[in-house]
Design a protein that fits this description.
- The chain has 834 residues and is α/β, with parallel strands linked by helices.
- Helices cover 35% and strands 21% of the residues.
- The protein is built from 26 helices and 34 strands.
- The chain has a 7-stranded parallel β-sheet, with helices on both faces. The chain has a 6-stranded parallel β-sheet with strand order 19-29-28-20-27-26, sandwiched between helices.
- Strand 14 (371-374), helix 14 and strand 15 form a beta-alpha-beta unit.
- Residues 181-186 have low confidence and may be disordered.
- The structure holds adenosine-5'-diphosphate and zinc ion (2 copies).
- Residues 539, 541-542, 544, 579, 581-582, 584 line the site of one zinc ion (ZN).
C-alpha cells in the first residue's frame, strides 16, 4: 500500500541517447493522476525542457542527488501502455541502445514537445473572440507578433513555469499549433460547416417565407439555401441538420453560389457556422464492404495447415512459403477476419516499398474503417491519428511498415509479417537498429499472439528455424487461378558481346522479347539495381575518377540533372565535361544505371512509352503512386527501375521482366549476397504473368552458369538454401551463430584504426580470438568525413549467455572511449546486422 506521506518519485525515459532512467519528484497535486506510460514535461540539464515517459513510480529517493520536480503531466491516461514499456525495454537491451532512443523512434514527433518545438497561431483564428487570461493573452500576442516561435525563445520571453500547460490549453482551445518542424503542424484536421440556425427548424413557415423573399432579392443566397436543403437531406429527416454541410461543398463546383452568399446567410442568422474535427482518412460506407474472397482449394488447404500449426501443434510462429501470385494475401485476409471476430487486434506488417495503395485498397474494401494505415510517407498528424485510434479502439487492425510495431496495441492476437525476408525490415540508422520481424516475434510473445510469416523466398534463417521445427511450416507452390510461374531464360552477355550483337545493354534475346511485347501491346518491367546514369566517370587520358569530398567513394553520374551525386552522404556537384586533373575532355562514363537504360530504350524503341522508377523519380509525396497508377492504366509500356519495383506489385499486362545485369547482385561482397540475389531475382520475376497470359523472364549475365541463376531458373529454392546453409555452417554465419557488428568511427584515420585495434584486443580478452574478427577496412572506408573500421563478433547460439556478452561489449566500448585519445571515437553497435 502506498504511503501518502512518503514522497513519490517517477523514473522517466528521456528521449535522448542516455544510458539510464532519470528520477524526478512527483508534485503532490499530481500523485493521484500520474501513471506509468504518461508523458510528463521535465527540465533536463541547464536549458532543456523535454517530454519524457514515466517508466515506473516508486518511493525510493535517489542517493546522490535531489531530484527535480516534474513540471507537468501531459496525459490523463497513459500514451504508452505496459506492454509497450516491456517491449521497449527489451529492444533497448537486445539491440544495445538506450531506452530514450527507442522512445524517440517509437513516438510520432507530434506526441513529443521538446525545446525544438515550434509554436504558431492557427491560421484564421481571431484571439479576440476567446476569453483568455492575462497570461494567455500575452503568449498569444507574442506568437502573433513573431509568426512562428521556437519553444525556447518563447520560454525566455514569457518566463512562466506553467508555460507548457498554458500552451496546451491554448492548443486545446484551437488557438495555437505546436509542431516539430516548421512544416509539420500538429493540428487535428478541421472542417468548417454550416447548418440552419435552430429557430428555422421550429418554424417551417418562416423558412418558407424566407425562401420566397430571397428568391427575389438575393438569388445567390436563395441558391445557397436551396443547395443546403438538398445536400443536407433535412427534408427527409430534420435531425440531419445537426451534422450540417461542409461550406466548401456548398460553393465548390457551383458557379451560382459564391462564398460571400453563404457568409451573408451566416450574418443574417439563417446559417450557423461551426467546426468539426475530421479524420484524415476517408471514411468508407460500411454497406459497400466486400465479403471475404473465397479461397481456392489449395489456399484452403494452406489455411487449414496454418490453423493446425498454430492450434494443434501449438506453434506461436508459422511460415507460409507461397510462390509469388499464390494468393498469400487472400489467406491473410481470412486470418485477419477470424482474429477480428474474436474481438482482438491484428497487425499486418509490410516492407516500406510494398505498402502501396494497391494492397491498401484491397484490404480497405474488406475491412473498411476498422483498418488503420501506418506509413512513413504519412504526415506526423496522420501517424498520431493512427496511434490514438489504436488506443481508442477505432482501429482494431493496422497495416503498416516496420515502425508500426511501436503502436499502442493492448490485445493483439495475430501479427502478419508479409515478405518477411525483406531487408528493409531492418532499421540501419539511427538506433534502435531493429529488425521488425524479430521485434514482431517479441511483440507476439508479450501479447500471446500468433505470428504468421509469409514469403515466396523466405530468409534463410526463417526457413532453417522452420526446418528445425521451431516454427510451423506451410508451403503453397501453386499460383492462383490459371496463372503459371513465368519461364526464365538466362541470356549470355559475354557471348553476345563477342559476336558483336549487343545493342547497348541488350543482348538479342531481351531486345527481341521487348520488341514482341510492344507489338502485342503488353507491358515490360526492366530491372537494374543502380540508379543514376552511370556508377562513375573516368578520364580516358589520366584515369581520374571523381570522388566524393566527404566519402571514399566515386560519385554517381546523374546525366539528366547534370550532376555528380554521392549515394552515401547525398553530396552533389555539377558534372563538367572535362577532367579536373588533366583538363582532358575525354571523360567517359562507366557502368549502367537506370537513367542510361531509360535513354537506351528511347533510342532503341522510339515509339515506346518509357518511365523510370527509382529513388530519384519518386521523391515527391505521391510520385511513386502516380507512376504505379500510370503503369496500371497502361500509359507506360516499359517501366525501368531499381528494387522498388520488385515488391508486391500486381499488374495484369506485364508479360516480360528483364534483368539487365544480374552480375553485380551475384558478386556483391557479403555473406548474404547469394540469398539476396535469389530473392530479388525471384521476386522481380514474380511480377510477370500474374494472370492468364504466360510470363517470361530474361536474366542477362556474363556468368550464365552461375548456380544462383540456375536456381532461379529452376525455382529451386531448397537447392539454394541447402547449399548456402552448408557454407554458413562451415564458415560460422547465421543462423548458426549470432552476429554483432561494431563500427568504429573517427575523423582521423589513424585514430579510427588504432581505436579499432585496441577495441578488438579488449574484446578478445574475454571473448577469445575466434569470436572477435577484425578490424576490417570496409569497402567504403570513409563516409561523411568519418573513417570507418569494422569489427564482427560471432556468438554461438547455445551454451553462452548472450546478454552477458552484450554487457561485456558495452563495457569494452566504455573503457575504450574513456581513454583520452579516444574521447571522440564513436562506436556504432549493430545487433544482427543485415
Ligand atoms: P502473393 O501475395 O502470394 O504474391 P496475391 O495475394 O497478390 O499473391 O494474389 C495474386 C493475384 O491473385 C491477385 O491479383 C489476387 O487478387 C488474385 N487472387 C488470389 N487468390 C484469390 C482468391 N481466392 N480469389 C480471388 N482472387 C484471388
Ligand atoms: Zn584526366
Ligand atoms: Zn559522400
Amino acid at each position: 500500500m502506498g504511503n501518502h506521506t512518503q514522497a513519490l518519485y517517477a523514473d522517466v525515459i528521456i528521449p535522448l541517447p542516455l544510458p539510464q532512467l532519470y528520477t524526478y519528484q512527483v508534485p503532490e497535486e499530481q500523485r493521484a493522476r500520474l501513471q506509468a506510460g504518461c508523458r510528463v514535461v521535465v527540465s533536463f540539464g541547464k536549458q532543456k525542457t523535454l517530454t519524457a515517459i514515466v517508466h515506473h513510480l516508486h518511493h525510493k529517493a535517489p542517493e546522490h542527488y535531489t531530484p527535480k520536480p516534474i513540471l507537468e503531466v501531459l496525459d490523463d491516461t497513459p500514451t504508452v501502455n505496459e506492454l509497450q514499456l516491456s517491449l521497449f525495454s527489451w529492444m533497448a537491451d537486445y539491440y544495445m541502445c538506450t531506452p530514450g532512443e527507442v522512445i524517440q523512434a517509437a513516438l510520432p514527433s507530434a506526441l513529443k514537445i521538446s525545446t525544438q518545438s515550434f509554436i504558431s497561431l492557427v491560421p484564421g483564428v481571431r484571439p479576440e473572440s476567446h476569453s483568455l487570461s492575462e497570461e494567455e493573452h500575452r503568449i498569444v500576442k507574442l506568437v502573433q507578433e513573431h509568426g512562428t516561435l521556437q519553444y525556447e525563445e518563447l520560454s525566455r520571453k514569457v518566463r512562466n513555469g506553467r508555460l507548457y500547460s498554458l500552451l496546451k490549453e491554448l492548443q486545446d482551445k484551437g488557438l495555437i499549433d505546436i509542431f516539430e518542424k516548421a512544416k509539420e503542424r500538429y493540428t487535428p484536421k478541421r472542417q468548417r460547416k454550416v447548418r440552419l440556425a435552430e429557430r428555422w427548424l421550429n418554424d417551417k413557415e418562416a423558412l418558407n417565407d424566407l425562401l420566397v423573399s430571397l428568391e427575389k432579392k438575393a438569388p445567390q443566397q436563395w441558391y445557397a439555401l436551396l443547395k443546403y436543403i438538398e445536400t443536407s437531406g433535412i427534408l427527409r429527416d430534420w435531425t440531419r441538420n445537426q451534422a450540417g454541410v461542409e461550406k466548401q461543398a456548398l460553393h465548390a463546383n457551383d458557379a451560382r453560389i459564391k462564398p460571400a452568399a453563404i457568409q451573408a446567410l451566416v450574418k443574417k442568422g439563417v446559417f450557423e457556422e461551426f467546426e468539426v474535427e475530421v479524420s484524415r482518412f476517408a471514411a468508407i460506407d460500411p454497406h459497400k464492404l466486400q465479403p471475404l474472397p473465397a479461397l481456392s482449394p489449395a489456399q484452403q488447404e494452406a489455411f487449414r495447415q496454418i490453423m493446425h500449426a498454430f492450434f494443434e501443434e501449438k506453434k506461436d510462429i508459422a511460415l507460409l512459403h507461397g510462390v509469388t501470385g499464390s494468393g498469400k494475401t487472400e489467406i491473410y485476409i481470412h486470418f485477419i477476419q477470424q482474429a477480428l471476430d474474436s474481438g482482438s487486434q491484428v497487425l499486418y506488417l509490410l516492407p516500406e516499398i510494398a505498402l502501396t495503395t494497391q494492397i491498401v485498397q484491397r484490404l480497405r474494401k474488406i475491412f473498411g474503417d476498422k483498418m488503420g494505415v501506418y506509413h512513413s510517407r504519412f504526415s506526423d498528424n496522420e501517424r498520431v491519428e493512427v496511434w490514438r485510434g489504436v488506443q481508442s479502439g477505432r482501429f482494431s487492425f493496422v497495416v503498416g511498415v516496420r515502425s508500426a510495431v511501436f503502436l499502442p496495441f493492448d490485445n493483439l492476437s495475430l501479427i502478419i509479417v508479409d515478405e518477411e525476408h525483406e531487408a528493409s525490415y531492418k532499421q540501419h540508422e539511427p538506433a534502435p537498429r531493429y529488425h521488425a520481424r524479430d521485434v514482431a516475434m517479441m511483440l507476439g510473445k508479450l501479447h500471446y499472439a500468433k505470428v504468421l510469416l509469409g514469403s515466396a523466398t523466405p530468409a534463410l534463417e526463417t526457413f532453417y528455424h522452420a526446418q528445425q521445427g521451431r516454427y510451423g511450416y506451410v508451403s503453397l507452390q501453386q499460383r492462383y487461378g490459371n496463372a503459371r510461374l513465368p519461364r526464365v531464360i538466362i541470356s549470355d552477355l559475354r557471348a553476345a558481346q563477342k559476336k558483336n550483337r549487343l545493342r547497348y545493354s541488350f543482348a538479342p534475346e531481351l531486345y527481341e522479347a521487348i520488341h514482341r511485347r510492344l507489338e502485342r501491346q503488353e507491358q515490360v518491367i526492366l530491372f537494374q539495381n543502380r540508379r543514376g546514369y552511370a556508377p562513375y566517370l573516368c578520364c580516358e587520358d589520366c584515369g581520374w575518377i571523381p570522388k566524393c569530398r566527404f566519402c571514399n567513394v566515386s560519385l554517381t553520374y546523374h546525366m539528366h540533372e547534370r550532376l555528380l551525386r554521392c549515394h552515401y552522404c547525398g553530396h552533389q556537384q555539377g558534372a563538367k565535361g572535362t577532367c579536373r586533373a588533366c583538363g582532358s575532355s575525354r571523360v567517359k562514363n562507366v557502368g549502367i544505371g537506370t537513367e542510361k537504360i531509360e535513354d537506351e530504350l528511347k533510342l532503341l524503341f522510339p515509339e515506346a512509352r518509357v518511365a523510370r522508377m527509382d529513388l530519384d523519380t519518386t521523391r515527391g509525396k505521391d510520385a511513386y503512386q502516380k507512376l504505379i497508377d500510370r503503369f496500371e492504366a497502361h500509359d507506360i509500356d516499359i517501366l525501368v527501375g531499381t528494387q522498388m519495383l520488385t515488391k508486391g506489385l500486381d499488374f495484369e499486362k506485364v508479360t516480360l521482366v528483364g534483368i539487365v545485369d544480374a552480375d553485380q547482385l551475384l558478386y556483391f561482397p557479403d555473406f548474404r549476397a547469394h540469398e539476396r540475389a535469389y530473392q530479388l531475382l525471384t521476386q522481380v520475376s514474380g511480377r510477370a504473368g500474374r494472370k492468364e497470359a504466360a510470363g517470361e523472364v530474361i536474366i542477362q549475365s556474363r556468368h550464365p552458369e552461375h548456380p544462383v541463376l540456375l536456381d532461379v531458373q529452376q525455382q529451386a529454392y531448397e537447392q539454394l538454401v541447402n547449399r548456402e546453409l552448408q557454407e554458413r555452417r562451415t564458415y560460422n554465419y547465421p543462423p548458426f551463430v549470432r552476429l554483432i557488428g561494431l563500427q568504429v568511427k573517427h575523423t582521423k584515420e589513424e585514430l579510427a584504426h588504432a581505436a579499432a585495434h585496441d577495441l578488438v584486443e579488449l574484446l578478445q580478452k574475454k571473448l577469445g580470438k575466434a569470436r572477435v574478427l577484425g578490424p576490417d577496412v570496409p569497402l567504403v572506408d570513409k563516409v561523411r568525413n568519418y573513417y570507418l573500421r569494422n569489427i564482427l563478433v560471432k556468438i554461438e547460439r547455445q551454451g553462452i549467455n548472450l546478454s552477458a556478452v552484450k554487457k561485456y561489449i558495452a563495457y569494452c566500448i566504455q573503457q575504450l572511449t574513456l581513454q583520452k585519445d579516444y574521447r571522440r571515437v564513436v562506436v556504432v553497435v549493430d545487433v544482427d546486422p543485415a
